[in-house]
Design brief:
By secondary structure, this protein is α+β, with helices and mostly antiparallel strands. The chain has a domain of 155 residues: outer membrane lipoprotein receptor (LolB), chain A (Clam). It is built from four helices and eleven strands. Strands 6-5-4-3-2-1-11-10-9-8-7 form an eleven-stranded antiparallel β-sheet, with no helix packed on it. Strand 4 and strand 5 form a beta hairpin. It is globular, with a radius of gyration of 24 Å. Bound molecules: 2-acetamido-2-deoxy-beta-D-glucopyranose (2 copies). The site of one 2-acetamido-2-deoxy-beta-D-glucopyranose (NAG) has 4 residues, from loops.
């Protein structure tokens, strides 16, 4: 019996897969490891587009939305397309135009989607989509939280910042320094928003030529007129 168990344990130690697993973990990056050390914040991939899912909640609201996001620090713009219940919207956040009231936002919405003509809001908001520049973590003096396993993003490194000097944010950084998502808290309202990116496509976001963007405005206008005709509605009232 004794000899048998000895043979078994030597056998498992020699198992190549087991030996590989142990070596693959960098203990200096794992919380509660004695050799843990905090690296300098890295630069991140700044230009990307991706699918996103976001869950925002506070004492009264639980809001889960999805869509597509375009992050372009070279143009200082973030575009967020969103679908939620019967609301469908697209925001263009202009980080060239920031005041004390927030970031300039041009927002198109269809709500409820089936019966309304589009509405357009132009003004300032404090968006849950920051403009991510290459030095996002460096400039915000990010604190390393170690390598963690996120239920949706998988193995990521976690970095904490105080966004705008006020909002605690945990940024999840994947392989190749691509941001996989971030978690915000709003301490005043006990709000929290968790955002994850999927299908991340890294690379410059093309700037529309002025004639293309005029075409887009024309299409949006025609679409609005057609929606009104199709459902014979004015503000969803008829
Ligand atoms: C900044 O945004 C506001 C609100 O949408 C808009 O009225 C204003 O024209 C914008 N300014 C510039 C320089 O784009
Ligand atoms: C939740 O609703 C209550 C009652 O309407 C209100 O007093 C409170 O300010 C709301 N809380 C938040 C975080 O919006």
């Amino acid at each position: 019996m004794k000899i048998f168990s000895l043979v078994m344990s030597v056998g498992s130690l020699a198992h190549p897969a087991l030996a590989l697993d142990t070596r693959a973990i960098d203990r200096s990056r794992v919380p509660f490891s004695s050799g843990f050390r905090q690296p300098e914040p890295p630069m991140v991939e700044p230009e990307f587009r991706a699918n996103w899912n976001q869950h925002k909640w506070d004492a009264n609201v639980s809001h889960i939305a999805s869509g597509f996001v375009y992050n372009s620090p070279s143009q200082r713009k973030v575009r967020v397309d969103e679908a939620y219940d019967s609301t469908f919207g697209s925001s263009l956040l202009d980080y060239n135009n920031v005041t004390q009231e927030g970031v300039a936002n041009r927002l198109w919405t269809l709500s409820p989607a089936i019966t309304s003509p589009p509405a357009c809001f132009e003004g300032f908001t404090n968006p849950a989509f920051p403009l991510i520049s290459a030095d996002f973590l460096v400039a915000n003096n990010a604190i390393y939280g170690g390598e963690v396993h996120d239920a949706l993003a998988g193995k990521v490194s976690s970095w904490d910042i105080l966004y705008q000097g006020a909002i605690p944010v945990t940024v999840l950084l994947g392989e190749d320094n691509i941001i996989q998502g971030y978690d915000f808290v709003g301490p005043e309202t006990r709000a929290r928003a968790i955002t994850r990116f999927f299908n991340i496509i890294v690379g410059p976001i093309r700037q529309m030529s002025s004639s293309e963007s005029a075409d887009q405005r024309q299409i949006a206008h025609q679409y609005g007129e057609r929606t009104k005709l199709l459902w014979n509605v004015e503000g969803g009232k008829k």
